């Protein structure tokens, strides 16, 4: 038999069937076979991680890269380097915060030109649904975007306005017609308010969990009426969980995600003026966090993705009413989630399901999300016991702003392979496309 190009062995290989000792054999860019950990194999390179864990590359379907137009906030080169350093081998870029936003095929072409030759991991793209672009949705779908992002409340940037409920219905009918996916920032604008002051408590009170619940109820109703598949983005309010659970039990095609910051941080811990913690919807109470973990464990929430939404330090002024809302965490999601998951009794197989297999499935990304024969050889050597002291200045994010600065997280990524090749600084990522 021709020797394999690469064999990676670990006593803690996380496969779709669970964690077990295994040798992962790679030929070309694909996983060719799985063997017993100690199986004698001929290979150009044979690496034994022993008791370190071997994970599939993570799939982060909620990343704001911001290029072109706001590349000083983040760009494809820095974002994908950060992704690789955090064990993420595939990202899907959000359509807003770049100029132009990805709301037409012409804007998608601009995005591709900006990304060409810069990507250290694989990159897919969401299209955008905004007022007046219904005619652009089918052509974007034909080009291979993974679905369409929309807002029900102001997005924070004027070039990506929200949809009214009536406009959302029309967009859902259009997307349902070609079997696409709508991903929704669900907050009811009627229940949002301007913060009453500069502090975190005033900001939190201005965006209550009831606003999320009301919007999710609307999305579920419209999804049921139109037959469109929908995905609720960045659930922070536990008030949404029973609505989502009932919808799924009733056969509505709805999934939902949450984010590392909602699972690991709490409102009680947010220091006054530390606007690195500001995001929309906001980080809520520790009791709310416990309920999100319960929803994740029961499958009401399907996945955990970063919602990496960076900005320059200058936009994070020490006023929660005025600061840019977004958390930079692309490089840190695995360690952050593992820290809290392990404390709560979850295993690496759970984390991989939430952060790799399920996001890949929801966004219809083939060949990703699991260590199994035929998939891309996207692999991560991970030390789950390592202490990881976070220094924002040493991250690959373009700007050194993160609420995890100074925290010690558990777990460290040692090596990331993309299609059997170590991600060592070369921009070898490819574009990933959804079903057409």
UniProtKB/TrEMBL annotation:
Domain spans labelled Amidohydrolase-related: 54-423
Keywords for the protein's UniProt record, in alphabetical order: Hydrolase, Metal-binding, Zinc
Q: EC no.?
A: 3.5.2.5
Gene3D superfamilies referenced in this protein's UniProt entry, alphabetically: Metal-dependent hydrolases (3.20.20.140)
Q: What is the lineage of its organism?
A: Bacteria, Bacillati, Actinomycetota, Actinomycetes, Streptosporangiales
Pathway given for this chain reads: Nitrogen metabolism; (S)-allantoin degradation; allantoate from (S)-allantoin: step 1/1
Instruction: State the species of origin.
Output: Nonomuraea antimicrobica
Note the InterPro entries from the entry: Allantoinase (IPR017593), Amidohydro-rel (IPR006680), DHOase/Allantoinase_Hydrolase (IPR050138), Metal-dep_hydrolase_composite (IPR011059), Metal_Hydrolase (IPR032466)
Family to which this protein belongs: Belongs to the metallo-dependent hydrolases superfamily. Allantoinase family.
Q: PANTHER family attached here?
A: ALLANTOINASE
> Signal as a keyword?
no
The prosthetic group or cofactor this protein requires is:
Zn(2+)
Q: What is this protein called?
A: allantoinase
Q: How does it assemble?
A: Homotetramer.
**Pfam families xref list:** Amidohydro_1 (PF01979)
Superkingdom of origin: Bacteria
Keyword tRNA-binding in record:
no
């Amino acid at each position: 038999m021709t020797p394999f190009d690469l064999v990676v062995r670990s006593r803690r290989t996380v496969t779709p069937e669970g964690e077990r000792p295994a040798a992962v054999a790679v030929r070309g860019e694909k996983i060719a076979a799985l063997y017993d950990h100690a199986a004698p194999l001929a290979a150009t390179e044979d690496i034994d991680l022993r008791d370190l864990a071997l994970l599939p590359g993570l799939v982060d379907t909620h990343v704001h890269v911001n290029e072109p137009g706001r590349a000083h906030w983040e760009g494809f080169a820095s974002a994908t380097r950060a992704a690789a350093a955090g064990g993420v081998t595939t990202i899907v870029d959000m359509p807003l915060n770049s100029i132009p936003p990805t709301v037409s095929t012409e804007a998608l072409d601009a995005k591709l030109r900006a990304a060409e030759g810069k990507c250290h991991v694989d990159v897919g793209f969401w299209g955008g649904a905004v007022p007046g672009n219904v005619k652009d949705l089918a052509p974007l779908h034909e080009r291979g975007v993974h679905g369409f992002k929309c807002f029900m409340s102001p997005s924070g940037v004027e070039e990506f306005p929200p949809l009214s409920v009536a406009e959302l219905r029309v967009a859902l009918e259009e997307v349902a017609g070609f079997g696409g996916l709508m991903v929704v920032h669900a907050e009811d604008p009627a229940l949002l308010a301007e913060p009453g002051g500069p502090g975190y408590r005033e900001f939190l009170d201005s965006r209550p969990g009831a606003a999320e619940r009301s919007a999710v109820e609307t999305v579920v109703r419209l999804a049921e009426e139109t037959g469109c598949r929908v995905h609720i983005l960045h659930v922070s309010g536990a008030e949404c969980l029973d609505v989502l659970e009932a919808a799924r039990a009733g056969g509505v095609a709805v999934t939902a995600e949450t984010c590392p910051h909602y699972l690991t941080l709490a409102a009680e811990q947010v220091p006054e003026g530390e606007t690195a913690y500001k995001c929309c919807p906001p980080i809520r109470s520790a009791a709310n966090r416990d309920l999100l973990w319960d929803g994740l464990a029961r499958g009401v929430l399907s996945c955990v993705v970063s919602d990496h939404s960076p900005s320059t330090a200058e936009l994070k002024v020490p006023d929660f009413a005025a600061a840019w809302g977004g958390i930079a965490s692309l490089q840190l999601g695995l360690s952050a989630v593992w820290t809290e998951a392990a404390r709560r009794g979850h295993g690496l197989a759970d984390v991989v399901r939430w952060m790799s297999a399920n996001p890949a499935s929801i966004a219809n990304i083939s060949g990703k999300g699991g260590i199994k024969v035929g998939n891309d050889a996207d692999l991560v050597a991970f030390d789950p016991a390592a202490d990881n002291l976070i220094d924002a200045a040493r991250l690959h994010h373009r700007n050194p702003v993160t609420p995890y600065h100074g925290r010690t997280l558990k777990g460290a990524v040692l090596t990331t392979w993309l299609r059997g090749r170590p991600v060592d600084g070369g921009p070898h990522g490819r574009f990933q496309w959804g079903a057409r």
